Amino acid sequence: MNKPDKIGKYTVLSELGRGATAVVYLAEDEFNARKVAIKVANAVEGMGDDEAKRFQKLFLNEASLVGKLSHPNIVGVFDAVVEGDARYIVMEYVPGGSLKKFCTETNLLPVRQAVLVIFKACRALDYAFQNGVIHRDIKSANILLSERDDIKISDFGTAQISHSTQTQLDGFIGSPAYMSPEQINEERASVQTDIYSLGVVMYELLAGRLPFQAANSVQMINKILSEEPTPLKTLRPELPDPLVSIVGKALAKDPKVRYASWFEMARDLAETFPQLEKYSFEISSAGKFNSLRKLDFFHDFRDADLG
User: Fold this and answer.
1) For the chain (length 307 residues), average pLDDT per consecutive 10?
2) What whole-number distance in Å separates Cα of residue 111 and Cα of residue 115?
3) Quick one: 61 and 149 in the same domain?
4) SS3 label, residue 160
5) Which one, of 42, 37, 24, 27, lies nearest residue 85 by Cα?
6) 123 located within any domain
7) What CA–CA distance (Å, rounded) separates 2 from 186?
């Protein structure tokens, strides 16, 4: 498939990537003077009926979020067209790539920056949850970095959306290495489902590897259900105990043992910041305190909780 010159009103600049079901282009939105990413659905010829129906649901699910989630740490969805053969979604362009490249032992983020990334993800996913959305496919490849070293959560195709008029996907949903035990067992998703998956991402950012190592998806699933991850302290003995405890609580196999809310997890992350000064000089204590105090998420926190 050659690069088109135009998609709707958008001028196509280059191809950003392609997969089995979609091609993503970088394009110019001349009316709003901004660059956008356009996900164009591939034709479903050659797919079986069940696969084609699932693909259609994924696309429509993501398209249904146009203008619904407006948060600085969630990729904006500006437009969607589903008319005959024209099926595409217009999204905010995030130039920095994903967190995946920082999940190797030779290219880790500074600890403090990794914690800030997870903190921002908690805020974004709390906002989504308050608006009736559970992501269900949180992974390092779905958390993007913007030019200002900020994060954007992307790819809500598999999300459970309480207010959607579309038929919701069910069954085995997600990426096996990041799936919670209840997802594997095809139980209904909850906020704890996304908390587990973000716990996997946090483990990855700190350790440079997934909590479980497996040769295939079947082995991975069995380990998630029956084994405990390699202790973070074994891999990085210098990590402060409270940080290790946060990861452990997020990765608890029983969802009732995990954090009850994103607020609780974010609070615990914020309380580790003073201990992380020695890991980097990205933000001074005063700068961190003032930044946190301005966030609505922490409006009711005492100064001691943030400092």
Assistant:
1) 87 88 91 94 65 70 82 93 83 92 93 93 95 94 84 89 60 82 92 97 97 94 95 93 97 97 96 76 45 55 46
2) 6
3) no
4) strand
5) 42
6) yes
7) 39
Identify whether 254 is a catalytic site residue. Answer: no
User: Under 8 Å CB-to-CB from 122, ≥6 apart: which residues?
Assistant: 198, 262, 265, 266, 269
Does residue 272 contact residue 135 with C-beta atoms inside 8 Å?
A: no
Q: Give the separation between CA 39 and CA 81, rounded to whole angstroms.
A: 11
| Cβ–Cβ under 8 Å, residues 101 and 119 | no
Catalytic one of 5, 50, 79, 137:
137
- What would you report as the CA-atom Rg of the chain, rounded to the nearest whole angstrom? 20
How many C-beta atoms lie closer than 10 Å to residue 234's C-beta?
9
If 0-12 CB within 10 Å is exposed, 13-18 middle and 19+ buried, where does residue 287 land? Answer: exposed
pTM of the prediction? 0.84
Helix (H, G, I), strand (E, B) or coil at 5: coil
In what side-by-side order are the strands of the sheet with 22-29?
6-7, 10-18, 22-29, 34-41, 86-92, 77-83
- Pairs from 261-264 (Cβ < 8 Å, separation ≥ 24): 261/126, 261/191, 262/122, 262/123, 262/125, 262/126, 262/129, 262/191, 262/195, 263/126, 263/297
**Domain span holding position 23:** 6-92
Three-class DSSP category at 11: strand
User: Is residue 53 one of the residues assigned to a domain?
Assistant: yes
